[in-house]
Each structure stands twice: as structure tokens, then as C-alpha cells.
Amino acid sequence: MGPHGTEASRELVDVLLTLGRLRKILPGSEAKEIKEAVTALEQEYEEAGHAFSIVEFGGGWQIATKPEFSPVVEKMLKTRRFTRLSKAGLEVLAIIAYRQPLTRLEVDEIRGVNSSGAISTLSERNLITVVGRSQAVGNPLLYGTTREFLNHLGLKGLGQLPDLPDLEMVMDDRDELKEFASRVGRDVTDEELADYFEAVVEAAGGQGKLSANWVMGDFSGALNKAGLDIDASPVSAGDLGGLLLRIEDGTISGKIAKQVFEAMWNGEGSADAIIEQQGLKQISDSGAIEAIIQEVLDNSPKQIEQYRGGQQKVFGYFVGQVMKATQGKANPKQVNELLRKKLDS
Questions:
Q1: Are 48 and 94 contacting, i.e. CB atoms less than 8 angstroms apart?
Q2: Measured between alpha carbons, how far is 312 from 298 in angstroms, rounded to an integer?
Q3: Which of 19, 117, 151, 249 is most exposed, with minimal Cβ within 10 Å?
Q4: Dihedral of CA 97/98/99/101: which sign?
Q5: What pTM was estimated for this model as a whole?
Q6: CB 82 within 8 A of CB 151
Q7: Which of 200, 216, 218, 217 is nearest to 208 (CA)?
Q8: Alpha helices in 167-252, H assignment, sequence order
Q9: Looking at the chain, which runs of residues are DSSP E strands?
Q10: Cα distance between residue 90 and residue 86, in whole Å
């Protein structure tokens, strides 16, 4: 059983995977094989520079987002909800955001149509909430925006809302109201990020998972650090997709890709140009890798004894030494396979 058998089993249950559970999911696998596969997969994730890693606790393992990427993941999760708002929802949200507190009937009067459905949806998504009751006949509910609404916009208070035209100026013009709502909508959704992601996937030949990792991780992190909007990014979706193609075809490893991305961000050229100029192509020649592995093993008799004595985690030491000797250019998958073959022979 290889490490990817363990990875596949993770897709079945989004909970802690104990050794007992893994043996049920992967019948015929011995405990030692499973532990070795988990260790190899953990090392592969680390070398590839993924935004997630395998953590061991409570007698089992679980895939978890690395702490440095958690803010970006949270933002993307929120984006999934907000990008599904209808035009009616955006209109109602815009009106409430700039005119709160107000009742549903007041929203209806502004829009000229019934808004109960949109208000229900916005309430379910925790973008608006009941903040009191009006003194009008029947004491109808008053609505206002929530802390979740402010958090998504990155605002401390309503006073920091984008500077939009006076609401009164757009009340009598349906087209003006739609434009007004659209402008608020652009601030409470990440449609631009979603569009960028789709363009990256297309440029990367349909590599959705890899594209998501990079857009959510390195790309968004670089944008936030530089304080830039997507349209000001120095790395286009096509350029990022080109970089991901080089990871996918084995030209460079995930770790080296981070170095290339940084150079791209600094305006040093396309991924292909940087890889060529800096000599970053991945070493995939099995003979060359085997020679380096043998050298590492020759210098590590103590670690070999520990590994063969059952200390599986020492395997990571060998991988690290090989990657260090090749300046991170050796193909991680080949390193793992060839190392395992050498050590277990």
C-alpha cells in the first residue's frame, strides 16, 4: 500500500483517522505499512509545499490546514456563501447597510417589490439580523447588518463603509439602485477572486485542486502582504497557471515553485524564463538521485540502524538530507520511492 492509498482513505471520512479505522478502510494492510505510508505522505506534502499537513494526535491522524494559511481558508469559506447572493439579495443588503435600522416594508417601498425572500436569505447567512422593533403600527421588526458583514469587508464599524452616493439620490431610479447595489456587492463578495481562480484552472489545464491551493495560499497571501487588489496583481492568472503546469509536469517541485512565484511577483519574468535562467529544473534522473541517496546513507549509519529498528520517523531525516544535497531540486516522489527501496532491501 502506497501513501496515496492513505490519502484516498482520508476522502472517505473527514474525522480523526485512527490506526484501527485505517485498517478497516484498507483491508489487508499491516500496521507497519500504514504508519510508513502516513510518514511518506506527510513528507511528500511537506516537500510539495502544500497549505495543509498531517497532524498526529489522540491516537490517530488528520489532514489540517497549516496555521499560516488559516485566515485565507476562512476568507474563502465565507466567499462561497457570499458569491451566491442574488441581485435582489445584494439590493436589500445595500439598502439595509446604508439605511439601518429599517423594516421590511421600508425596504419594499424603496425597491418597489416584496423583499421577504431576500431578507430571509440574508438572515440565514448571518449578514443581517433583527436589531429591534419599530414604533409603527404592529411594531414590525427592524433589521441591521451583523458583525459577520463587517468582518467580511474588513471593517471595524459601519462608519468605514465604502463612500457611496447618498442613498436618497438613488431611491427613485431603479437603474441607479441596481448600480448602487452592485457596487456594495463587489465589496461583500469575492467574485474577482473566483474569476481569477477559474482563469488559473483553465491556464493550468484543469488542475482544480492545485490551483485552489495556490490561489488560497501563496497568491492571496502575497496580495494581502502587499495590500493590493487582484486587478493590481503583478502575476496574472495565466502566469500563475503556467507555473502550475511546470509543477504538474514535474519540471519543478512544489517547494521550488514558491521560489519561482516570488521571482514572478518581483517582475523577473514568466515561470519558464525564471526556471531556465536560475537553473531550477527538477532532478528526475533516477541514476543521479540514487547516487546522492547512497552518499547520504553512507554517512548515516546511526540513522539507518534507528530506522531499521522501527523508528519510522527517521525516514524524514534521509529525505531532508537528499533534498539538501540537491538544493531542493530532486523529485520528491522519486526520492521517497528510491529511499524506501534502498532502506528496506
A1: no
A2: 19
A3: 249
A4: positive
A5: 0.43
A6: no
A7: 200
A8: 174-188, 191-203, 208-214, 220-226, 237-248
A9: 17-18, 52-57, 60-65, 128-133, 141-145
A10: 6
Give, in order, the Cα–Cα distances in Å from 215 to each of 94, 195, 230, 232, 235: 28, 11, 11, 15, 11
Cell numbers of 256, please? 521550488
Strand-pair partners of 145? 128
Cβ count near 16 (within 10 Å): 14
How large is the greatest C-alpha to C-alpha distance in the chain, in angstroms? 88
Contact between 255 and 328 (Cβ < 8 Å): yes
Bridge partner residues of 141 (DSSP): 133
Reported as type and span, the H/E element at residue 170 is none
Measured between alpha carbons, how far is 295 from 321 in angstroms, rounded to an integer?
A: 10
Give the residue carrying C-alpha cell 538544493: 327
Coil, helix or strand for 185?
helix
Residue 66 · residue 51 · CB < 8 Å: yes
Which of 135, 139, 124 lies closest to 92 in space, CA to CA?
A: 124
Contact 188, 149 (CB under 8 A): yes
Show the domains of the chain with their CATH numbers: 3-65 (1.10.10.10), 84-188 (1.10.10.10), 191-278 (no CATH), 286-343 (1.10.10.410)
Residue 172 gets which letter from DSSP?
T
Residue 121 CB neighbour total at 10 angstroms: 18
d(CA 21, CA 38): 13
3-class DSSP assignment, residue 139: coil
What three-state secondary structure class fits 223?
Answer: helix
